[in-house]
Specification:
Elements: E1 3-11, E2 23-32, E3 37-43, E4 46-52, E5 59-66, H1 69-76, E6 84-93, E7 96-103, E8 111-116, E9 130-133, H2 142-147
Antiparallel strand pairs: 1-5, 1-8, 1-9, 2-3, 2-6, 3-4, 4-5, 6-7, 7-8
Length: 155
């Protein structure tokens, strides 16, 4: 059984600059509620079907399978709108790789960094550009951003 242990943070955009070109991602949800999310993702020239269970703290079950890109494009057409659009950058910091997502489309302006850990209490280096932790804020889940995009939030 696959378990994802992930923490999520906002990024101080004035302190972070992308390194490299990143990878363009388009993803949609075939199903998304509090108990499960079934996602299809196009990431560059690769595609994935992912099933995630409910989040408990910073942990949840995750099953991810590579699928043919043509199948993923057909599945995306079945997904709810809006799709999640973002460019992902990966940066090494200490022993960990951070994934920094710069959202576009209806989530334009949102920049989030995620780190996958081996245990929920694992110690990790905090880059200088790391902002507020939002791991416990469900609004920042991609499935939530599909239902209520960042551009529609009221501060």
């Amino acid at each position: 059984m696959a378990k994802e242990i992930e923490r999520k943070f906002l990024v101080h955009r004035e302190l972070w600059q992308p390194k490299g070109e990143g990878i363009e991602i388009a993803q949609g949800y075939l199903a998304a509620d509090k108990k499960r999310a079934v996602r299809v993702r196009l990431a560059g020239d690769r595609a994935y079907l992912t099933i995630k269970g409910p989040t408990k703290g910073v942990e949840r079950l995750e099953f991810e399978y590579e699928v043919p890109t043509e199948d993923a494009r057909a599945m995306l057409a079945l997904c709810e709108r809006p799709w999640i659009e973002k460019r992902r950058y990966c940066e090494q910091c200490g022993a960990h790789t951070w994934e920094i997502d710069c959202f576009s489309g209806e989530n334009e302006g949102l920049v989030v960094a995620e780190i996958e850990l081996s245990t929920a209490d694992e110690i990790f280096e905090h880059p200088t550009w790391l902002g507020e932790e939002v791991s416990d804020d469900s609004r920042y889940l991609n499935a939530s951003l599909m239902r209520l995009p960042f551009s529609r939030w009221r501060n």
